[in-house]
Amino acid sequence: MASSLALLIISFLFAGVFGLINADDRAFFIFGDSLVDNGNNNYLATLARADAPPYGVDYPTHSPTGRFSNGFNLPDLIGEYFGLKPIPPYLDPTHTGNNLLLGANFASAGVGILNDTGLQFKLYELGPRRVLVTGTGPLGCVPAELAQRSQNGECVAELQRAAALFNPRLTQMLLELNRKIGNNVFIATNANDIHMDFISNPKAYGN
Predict the structure, then answer these.
(1) Which helix or strand (DSSP H or E) is residue 180 part of?
(2) Which domain of life is it from (predicted)?
(3) What is the DSSP secondary structure assignment for residue 33, as one 8-state letter?
(4) Which has the minimum average pLDDT: 34-48, 114-128, 174-188?
(5) SS3 state at 8
(6) Which residues, at least 6 apart from 108, have a Cβ–Cβ distance to it below 8 Å?
(7) Closest by alpha carbon to 175, among 161, 191, 186, 159?
(8) d(CA 84, CA 76)
(9) Comparing C-alpha atoms, which of 50, 70, 52, 48 is closest to residue 60?
C-alpha cells in the first residue's frame, strides 16, 4: 500500500497563508506522498506512476500530469484559493533558479513513513510559520484494500483501527512541538474524518 501511514506537510513561509504579507511574498512548499505528488515520480524510475489514463481525465488538459488524481489535488486547490501560481514538481528540469524561492513540490508517491521523515519538522528553523500536517485517512477504505480484503464493501477493520491509533498520537505530538516552540506553527488536520464524510455523505460534494 503506497501510503500506509502518510504525512502531508504543507509549509507556508513567512505566515503568508494567513494574509500577513502580500501574496507576491508567499512561498509554498509541499512534502508528502501520492496524495500530493504533482509529477515528481514522472522523473523517477519507479512503478508508482500516474502518467497514464484514467489519471488526469478531469484535469483542464484532460491528460495525465503525474498527479494521483482524476484532476487537481489538495495543494492545487490551496494554492488557487490563496492566489498563488501553480507550484511545479521539484524534479521538473524547468523549475530552477529564483523560481524555487516561490516554492516547490517535493512529494513523491510511495514515500510512507521513513526514518528521515522527522527531519521535515526542522522546517521551522528555515522560516515556515504555518505548517499544515494531515494524519492518515481511512486506510481500510482505500480501493486496493476493499478489492482484496472486503467481503461486502465494508472497510477493513484492522486498518481502520491503525488509523484511529495513529492520528490522535500525531495530534498530541504536534501540540508538544508547538509548546516547545512557543507558537502554534504546526496545525493538525483530521484527514480521516474528512475522508469518511466523503464516503458516507457523497451527495454533499456533488454528483
Answers:
(1) helix 157-181
(2) Eukaryota
(3) S
(4) 114-128
(5) strand
(6) 33, 37, 40, 41, 44, 48
(7) 186
(8) 9
(9) 70
Burial 18-33 (b: 16+ CB within 10 A, else e): eeeeeeeebbbbbbbb
The DSSP element (H or E) to which 29 belongs, if any, is strand 28-31
Say whether the peptide bond before residue 128 is cis (omega within 30 degrees of 0): no
DSSP string, 37-104: -BSGGGGSS-S----STTTTTTSTTSS--SBSSSS--HHHHHHHHTTPPP--BTT-TT--GGGGGGEE
Local structure of 4: helix, strand or coil: coil
Q: Rounded to whole angstroms, how far apart are CA atoms 207 and 205?
A: 7
| DSSP secondary structure, 126-159, as one string | GSEEEEEEE----GGGSHHHHHHH-SSSPPPHHH
| 120, 145, 151, 197 from 158: Cα distances, Å | 29, 11, 14, 20
121-153 pLDDT per residue, tens? 566 666 667 778 888 888 898 888 889 998 888
Contacts of 115 (CB under 8 A, 6+ apart): none
- Residues near 199 by beta carbon (within 8 Å), at least 6 away in sequence: 138, 141
Cell of 72: 487537481
